[in-house]
């Protein structure tokens, strides 16, 4: 996060902490560690350089250039939405408002609070949508959109039978600032199925619309390290006015107020009929049409990058929702250990760790993500051998796997005779394993295998020898880094 403060292209609010009570400076510092887009009169006075007040045309151009720059800068520091955004708790902002003496300052911070409330409400949805993608993506940048929300909230709260969703709107970088400034008050004729703004809940599909006007990204899967930016918005509608069209016969119609139109599209962005949906075994996404801008609340602009690897870590014991676990010292030790490995994976090798609590959950995720390269990790109990075997069948090869266990002696017997499998309860072994797989370093994997044999053989006073690695160890037959979405098979 330090680079944000050091880089002059980001907003400067250094004066703000000096104008308030010393006791709440910590909250103010949390605020200034975020990137904001201010729209209209929602820009607080304490922002001394309003370079990201996108009601200014110069700043619209600047935002466009910033978003485009991510394509050329693979070293851009990550802002992790799930961690950094939680640095600001709503009760922190309430405390800050109570302690301020100036009504103007109170109003400014209250506007931030309103936007952060909406932001936090949608975090889990974004997290689930990222988990549900076919290709693996990493968040490399997030701008929080700070704008007046009273009109939207009034319309939403007065809507009967309302449904609320987090939806995504893809656009080229040079269009995003204008769309936000006008709050989607620009009807699109691209799809020709009706007037309004188009959204999706599919983060693979939103990629289609983030290229230039020539649509060079249509239908082609994103390559590893390619980036794209889009707008994430909260959308509300009346559930009794949700229309499933399945055709383009009413293409110039306007969806009624508080309504929404939903279509199913394939890997060529074609709207599918009911029969085509039932017969389609390939890529399908939802596309939504909304004709009234008061149903749309932009929350943030996100930039994603396609990644090559992900880690699927199965552990039946890793249940953060069970309060009884937090009185268990072994569980605490496991959580601490897993968190260190997760941070290492994100920091050093650009990979996300997905924790799954059952074989069924793990296999379902692997099936969904099989077009990426998947690193298998699992606890030693709960039929781990069968789980690894089933996972490898989906992946299509006997790829390397790691058994993570705090009681390795219980599993050495079956692991030493099980193909392309290692075991560890040491942080350094885990890190070397992950790094060598991602760097495609077979020699380092062989060295690691020998070090593990020596360490546990000495520790348990046994002669330990794992099976030699075979040619499948780093193979991922389904992995795709080029091609079209029409090549995708969804089972």
Describe this structure in words.
By secondary structure, the protein is α/β, with parallel strands linked by helices. The chain folds into 2 domains: 2-305, Phosphoenolpyruvate Carboxykinase, domain 3 (Alpha-Beta Complex); 308-459, Rossmann fold (3-Layer(aba) Sandwich), CATH 3.40.50.2300. Helices cover 35% and strands 18% of the residues. It contains 17 helices and 14 strands. The chain has a 5-stranded mixed sheet with strand order 1-2-9-5-3, sandwiched between helices. A 5-stranded parallel sheet has the order 11-10-12-13-14, with helices on both faces. A 4-stranded mixed sheet has the order 4-8-7-6, with no helix packed on it. Helix 14 (384-395) links the parallel strand 12 (373-378) and strand 13. Helix 6 (90-99) runs antiparallel to helix 7 (103-121) and helix 13 runs parallel beside helix 14. The protein is globular and about 75 Å long.
> Beta fraction of the residues?
15-25%
Shape designation: globular
Low-confidence stretches: 1-24, 45-51, 72-86
Tally the beta strands: 14
Annotated CATH topology of the largest domain: Phosphoenolpyruvate Carboxykinase, domain 3
How many domain modules? Answer: 2
CATH class membership of the largest domain: Alpha Beta
- Total DSSP helices: 17
Helix/strand-derived category reads: alpha/beta
Report Rg.
25 Å
Mean pLDDT: 79
Q: Tell me what the CATH architecture of the largest domain is.
A: Alpha-Beta Complex
What distance lies between the first and last C-alpha atoms, to the nearest angstrom? 40 Å
